[in-house]
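Q: Given only this backbone (119 positions), what sequence would you predict?
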């Protein structure tokens, strides 16, 4: 993703997270992806579609957040999904991992993927 250079060296870059946690899940033509670090979500018909859409949503969010003055910028850049949402996703990933491992011989229709979202 492309970001505008900061107006003041170090100020905006220091506020931006280095790694962003994103998850995608779906089956057949029904996919959703979430950015847990900025509480963003998208839907689509394929993993690739939600991966691209979420990347664009993050890019637009960062562009808008970086354009805001302090302290609004810092608040937007440190916004995360609520704890219960993060906990729900941790449980879903854990359960999915157990289910996939237990049914490895058969076909398991649901998938949980981690999406690379470089800041």
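A: Predicted residues:
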């Amino acid at each position: 993703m492309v970001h505008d250079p900061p107006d003041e060296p170090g100020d905006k870059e220091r506020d931006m997270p280095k790694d962003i946690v994103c998850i995608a899940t779906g089956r057949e033509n029904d996919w959703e992806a979430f950015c847990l670090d900025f509480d963003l979500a998208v839907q689509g018909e394929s993993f690739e579609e939600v991966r691209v859409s979420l990347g664009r949503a993050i890019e637009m969010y960062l562009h808008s957040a970086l354009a805001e003055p302090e302290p609004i910028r810092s608040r937007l850049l440190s916004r995360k999904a609520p704890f219960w949402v993060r906990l729900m996703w941790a449980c879903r990933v854990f359960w999915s991992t157990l289910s996939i491992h237990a049914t490895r011989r058969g076909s398991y229709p649901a998938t949980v993927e981690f999406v690379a979202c470089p800041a």
